[in-house]
Write a structure and sequence with these properties.
The chain is mainly alpha-helical. It contains 4 helices and no strands. It starts with a helix and ends with a helix.
């Protein structure tokens, strides 16, 4: 296996090779969906001029707010 093979399999969604063509097609579709969702996330962050860490911090703050919980800067950093 080459380093290119390692890079290509770094984000695969299966533990073993699929046993059928149908299984391989489903795996390929799932990987394509995952890639599309990632691309959409990246485009949204660029449009908002945010880094992913900022979006993650905002997500934690919103979730804490929904639970009527205060999130301190220390907790947010953790």
């Amino acid at each position: 296996m080459t380093s290119e093979d390692d890079a290509g399999n770094a984000y695969r969604v299966y533990a073993e090779e699929p046993c059928s063509r149908a299984g391989a097609a489903v795996i390929e579709a799932l990987q394509s969906l995952r890639d599309s969702a990632h691309d959409a996330d990246e485009r949204a962050l660029r449009a908002l001029q945010m880094r992913s860490i900022e979006a993650l911090a905002l997500l934690h703050l919103v979730e804490a707010s929904r639970g009527d919980r205060f999130l301190s800067p220390t907790e947010l950093a953790a």
